[in-house]
Structure formats: C-alpha cells, structure tokens
Design a protein that fits this description.
The chain has about 325 residues and is α/β, with parallel strands linked by helices. The protein folds into three domains: about 40 residues, no CATH class; about 120 residues, Oxidized Rhodanese, domain 1 (3-Layer(aba) Sandwich); about 120 residues, Oxidized Rhodanese, domain 1 (3-Layer(aba) Sandwich), CATH 3.40.250.10. Helices cover about 25% and strands about 15% of the residues. It has a five-stranded parallel beta sheet with strand order 5-9-8-6-7. A five-stranded parallel beta sheet has the order 10-14-13-11-12. The chain has a two-stranded antiparallel sheet with strand order 1-2. Helix 5 packs across helix 10.
Length: about 325
C-alpha cells in the first residue's frame, strides 16, 4: 500500500513533500540527488503549503491549528499489550485531545474469529467508524499513548485498507501532545453518528498460506516487528499459552526502534538506514508480521513515509501462525 503523496528525491531516499506538516510543499535550495539529512533541515526549506493532500504523518503543531475544522476527526486508538497493565479506554477517559473519540481496536475487529484484532468486514468497519462520526470526506487523525506508534498505525492502516486515504498518524501521539502542554479534556465526548462507506482494497492482507509460500519460495521478505527476545524465543509471549520464537526465514525489526525518544518517527534518512540495517531490501516485496497484526503496521507506516510501495500485512501474524501449527525457530 503506497503513499499518494508527492515526494522529493534525495540521495538516500524520499521525503514526503508535506512530511510533519500535512501540507504540500516545494523544496527550495535543494537539487535532485542532494541528501536532506535531518527533519529540521528539510522543514526549513518548505513552502507553498496546501491542505489538499494529507500525508501519513502530521505534527502536533499541524493538528493544533486544525482542531476546530469541521471535517477533522481525531481518534484515540490507544491499545496495549496484555502484559503492560495499561487500559487504553481508561486512559482516554482520564484525558485526551479535545474532541477525540475512542477507536477501540478490540471492537473494530472481526467478531467471527477467536484470533485477536483480525480485520473486520467492510460493513462492520463502516458501522463502527460511522458511530464515531467519521464520514468519507472526513480528515482523520489517529494517535495512541504508547510513544512508539504501537496501535495508531494499525488504525491508520485499517482506514487505508478500506479505501479512506485522508488519514494520518499524529507524530509522537498523545505523549508528545501532553509534553508540549497542549490542551486535553476528560470523559466521553458527544458524537453525532455519520454514514461511512468502506470497500476493502484487494491484495493488502496476507494469509498464513501466503506467508508459508513466501518463506518457502523466497518471493517476499517476512519482517517480524516483535521484540528481539520474543523473536529469538528467550522472552515469553504476552498471550498465555503461546510459545515465542519466529517463522524460519523471517527477519526481525522491533517496532520501537523506528521512533526517536520523543515518540516521533525517525527522520527519513535514519529511518531508511534503520530498516535496511535489519537486512530488509526496499526493492523486494515486504510482508509485515507481529503478535496479532497491530505493531507490524508501524513498519507499513514507516515505509509509506519513505515512498516504498506495495508492503502488505500478515493479519493473523504470530498468534495465528503458532495456533495453526506453523514451524517455529528460536535464536
């Protein structure tokens, strides 16, 4: 699933033209092929701002300036691993970005399977997000409180999967928003339900058979976004009864390594190097995986900001793989 954004070519990758501001821009003083090394250097060259195109990532500054716009819908998609003891909904009620609605990943999932967080039908997704007041012409901004795009990227990917392109992740999430002293509110916001139409894009979701075939043939790279310990089999899985380890032939890139200490996505050059450093090639198909299809979307988000197209998600991920008898390798 690739970005619809314009990009500026650099010596080591692509900067979305509206990176971090959500606005289309021209790059001044930068010739094609000249690297842009840091986000601050690039932002200093931005001009000609236009909201007609929405990037995959927007800054807290960008959102703060648009909170009152009628078409903007802010969704708190905070979800946490069972072992953390954190409750996304409870934290939302205690404090959230003004006007935000709670996007419950457990509810906005397929209720016909015991596997966690499987993509729902288009009808179920449409009903759930319509109840949050989201329409097809809404500008959707999603965030979470993890400081690492644990679940916001999943919500972003789901909207993209069902054909909604005007969706972005808040860079740094609520952690950065609150650290900057920006306003919050408590309780349940009043929401006027809306009508949303969803249509699943074909080919962006991979099955267990697809992944098994890719591992066997080498036709795609399987990138596991779980922690190194879970991948190697030295740490326990957070879900009771599931063994740790990995699919033979998979690569590991923990999702938390894609962000800076403040929770913002790494600058493009550094992000590209981090991904390539895990042995991942940008010119070959990529299938993201994790524990239950949530944190793997952080990779899809990162790739989208780099202009890398065609990355897909193994929705069942490790939970389905081991539950259905897939091969396990440790270390």
């Amino acid at each position: 699933m690739g970005s619809s954004l314009g990009t500026a070519a650099t010596g080591s990758g692509y900067w979305p033209l509206d990176y971090a501001f959500g606005t289309q821009a021209k790059v001044q003083g930068t010739s094609i092929g000249q690297p842009v090394d840091t986000r601050s250097q690039f932002i200093g060259r931005l001009s000609v701002m236009n909201d007609s195109v929405l990037p995959s990532i927007v800054s807290t500054h960008w959102l703060a300036a648009r909170l009152d716009q009628v078409e903007v819908r802010v969704l708190d998609a905070s979800w946490y691993l069972p072992s953390t003891g954190r409750d996304g909904r409870a934290e939302f009620l205690a404090g959230h970005i003004p006007g935000a609605r709670y996007f419950d990943l457990d509810e906005v999932s397929d209720d016909r399977t015991s596997l966690p967080h499987m993509l729902p039908t288009a009808t179920r997704f449409a009903v759930q997000v319509g109840a949050l007041g989201v329409e097809n012409d809404s500008t959707v901004v999603v965030y979470d409180g993890s400081g690492a795009n644990l679940s916001a990227a999943r919500a972003w990917w789901m909207f993209r999967a069902f054909g909604h392109e005007r969706v972005a992740v808040l860079d740094g999430g609520s952690k950065k928003w609150m650290a900057e002293g920006r306003p919050t509110e408590t309780g349940i916001p009043r929401v006027e339900p809306a009508v949303f139409t969803a249509k699943l894009h074909p080919g962006i979701v991979r099955t267990m058979d697809d992944v098994a075939d890719a591992l066997r043939s080498g036709s795609a790279q399987i990138v596991d976004m779980r922690s190194r310990g879970r991948f190697e089999g030295t740490d326990a899985e957070p879900r009771a009864g599931l063994p740790s380890g990995h699919m033979p032939g998979a690569m590991n890139l923990p999702y938390g390594t894609l962000v800076a200490p403040d929770g913002t996505l790494l600058p493009p050059d550094e992000l590209r190097q981090r991904i390539a450093g895990a042995g991942i090639r940008f010119d070959r198909p990529i299938i993201g995986s994790c524990g239950s299809g949530v944190s793997a979307c952080a990779l899809l988000l990162a790739l989208d900001t780099l202009g890398v197209e065609g990355a897909t998600l193994y929705d069942g991920s490790w939970t389905e793989w081991v539950t259905k008898g897939g091969a396990i390798q440790t270390r």
